Amino acid sequence: MKANQSTEERFLLLGFSDWPSLQPVLFALVLFCYLLTLTGNSALALLAARDPRLHTPMYYFLCHLALVDAGFTTSVVPPLLASLRGRALWLQRGGCLAQLCASLALGSAECVLLAVMALDRAAAVCRPLRYAGLASPRLCRALAGASWLGGLTNSAAQTALLASRPLCPPHQVDHFICELPALLKLACGGGRDIPERQMFAARVVILLLPSAVILASYAAVARAVRGMRTTGSRRKAVGTCGSHLTAVCLFYGSAIYTYLQPTLGYNQGHGKFVSLFYTVVTPALNPLIYTLRNKEVKGAARRLLGSLGRGHAGQ
Asked: Which of 80, 86, 278, 290 is most buried when burial is the number of CB atoms within 10 A of its CB?
């Protein structure tokens, strides 16, 4: 380490350096998932924007989810790939906080957006005759905007609280990104209780409040499904909500494990792999979860490819 590094506040991200034999496999997996995330979510957003048959509240929110997922993964993967190639990854304090702020904002926005999507699905199943009036374009825009604003607000608050606290040397972060639980491990002992409690309270709000909305929404869906008389109606309702519920379980399960543990009890070895799942793997799976059994998206893809083929043939 150079002499000037000892006087600068820089952070060494250890990444998966304690698993050297696993790094080539992880590099291939992360690169594959990243390319799949960008391709799948870009295609999903393109179809939702171009095809008039997908101009519905469900696909409007799904388009926002695709944008959040692509941005969320992009805030994490490039430095992760660099560290998996065996390079020591040093970040200035400002760069570390910027990465934290970006990933927190997009991850928090996804928390709120998944709750909004649960409300939308509950309205579609429980109030089908009034759904068009309930899910107006103006309300959908307001809910999507609230998701982004909620993510930014939570990120700004937690990043500001962390930035006001001294972090003690050695500045070695046992993680592949500047993630909040790993950075809190470096916090100096003096006066740590009040800010840490404030940050924990913010994490509880951004995770458990949307979780409560999702649980209440699906409780209402379950009651509505039990009251349906035909098997076809039940199957359609379950199909409508099943893909979203799968995405919720994948994202919230790993996020709650990471962010709702006390700092002293946080296992950084396990935490790295859990974080890898919800920052890299889950965003790659979401387009597949929402489209594999979705006839509307498949139809939109066929129409788009058909129009491109006709345009090419006409030239």
From this structure: 80
For tokens 């951004």, what's the residue?
A: 206
Task: Report the 10 Å Cβ neighbour count for 199.
Answer: 21
Among the listed residues 5, 8, 21, 23, the one whose alpha carbon sits nearest the alpha carbon of residue 176:
23
Average pLDDT of 23-38?
95
Q: Give the residue from 88, 258, 93 showing the smallest Cα distance to 182.
A: 258
- Residue 130's SS3 state is coil
pLDDT of residue 286: 92
In 3D space, the residue among 278, 291, 305, 195 whose CA is nearest the CA of residue 243 turns out to be 291
Q: Any residues with CB less than 8 A from the CB of 70 and at least 6 apart, and which?
A: 37, 38, 41, 42, 283
% of the chain with per-residue pLDDT over 90: 44
> Nearest Cα to 173, choosing from 80, 254, 237, 288?
80
Residue 120 CA: distances (Å) to CA of 89, 140, 203, 205: 42, 9, 24, 21
Q: What mean pLDDT comes out for the span 96-118?
A: 95
Contacts of 80 (CB under 8 A, 6+ apart): 15, 30, 176, 177, 280
pLDDT digits (tens, 9 = 90+) for 133-143: 888 999 999 99
| Cα–Cα dist 122/7, whole Å | 56
Decide: residue 301, CB within 10 A, 0-12 exposed, 13-18 middle, 19+ buried. middle
pTM over 0.70: yes
Burial readout 158-174 (b: 16 or more C-beta within 10 A, e: otherwise): bbebbeebebeeebebb
pLDDT, tens digit (0-9, with 9 covering 90-100), for 169-217: 888 888 898 988 888 888 876 545 667 788 888 888 999 999 999 999 9
How far is 135 from 133, CA to CA, in rounded Å? 6
| pLDDT for residue 313 | 58
